[in-house]
Design goal:
With 211 residues, this protein is an alpha+beta fold. A 4-stranded antiparallel beta sheet has the order 2-1-3-8. A 4-stranded antiparallel beta sheet has the order 4-7-5-6, covered by helices on one side. Helix 1 packs across helix 3.
């Protein structure tokens, strides 16, 4: 799917290459061989950008790792995060036996847009359910939900409460509104999602051209 207007657009054809490069980086790591070092032809992939990479097998999450702040060419960021997602500390490592049935999804992040966060209601008033990724930050803590999380938490208040708990600001049975940090900042972003689906060759197979 193409990236929404107002962000750093990644055309569909380039996004397919991006997802394939991320998948090939994982295959290379599992096969213990060097990753594809070629520069992609697409300028949108060579441009500096931030990505998240999600690995799933038959709908079950195997790993999700990402970058919020652009720091390297988008294709390198996706390859790096794909490899890191195979060892997501929250989940068991991805194995070579699992790999042929793993779907690889790259979320290319658009530009950050600061939102009012002085009060919960002020932030809730401007959130766009189903569209916005959200980053909350206060002190040394920062937490984010990708837009895909809206599928599981479609209610804005539940979405926001869960993100506060993820960041460690709201714990246990504490009412999430009372846990609102006084110096909280919030930014939203949109994403374009591109998937390289299973089935795929075993890790030792020779990779195809990646653009």
């Amino acid at each position: 799917m193409s990236e929404p207007a107002g962000s750093d657009a990644v055309p569909d054809a380039d996004g397919s290459v991006l997802a394939r490069r991320a998948a090939e980086a994982v295959a290379a790591r599992l096969a213990q061989r060097p990753p594809d070092g070629r520069l992609p032809a697409a300028a949108s992939l060579r441009a500096v950008g931030a990505t998240f990479v999600t690995l799933e097998r038959h709908g079950t999450l195997l790993g999700c790792i990402g970058t919020l702040d652009p720091a390297r060419p988008r294709y390198l960021d996706a390859m790096r995060n794909a490899v890191r997602a195979t060892a997501d500390p929250r989940l068991p490592p991805v194995t070579a036996a699992q790999w042929p049935s793993v779907d690889v999804t790259v979320s290319a992040l658009g530009r950050h847009e600061r939102l009012p966060a002085e009060t919960p209601d002020g932030l809730l008033a401007v959130l766009r359910p189903g569209v916005d990724g959200l980053v909350l930050a206060a002190g040394q803590r920062r937490a984010t939900f990708l837009p895909v999380v809206w599928h599981k938490l479609p209610d804005p208040e539940r979405f926001l409460a869960a993100l506060l708990r993820k960041g460690g600001w709201a714990t246990g049975g504490q009412p999430w509104r009372r846990a609102w940090p006084p110096a909280l900042s919030a930014v939203r972003y949109t994403v374009a999602e591109f998937t390289d689906p299973a089935p795929r060759p075993a890790p030792g197979a020779t990779p195809g051209a990646a653009g």
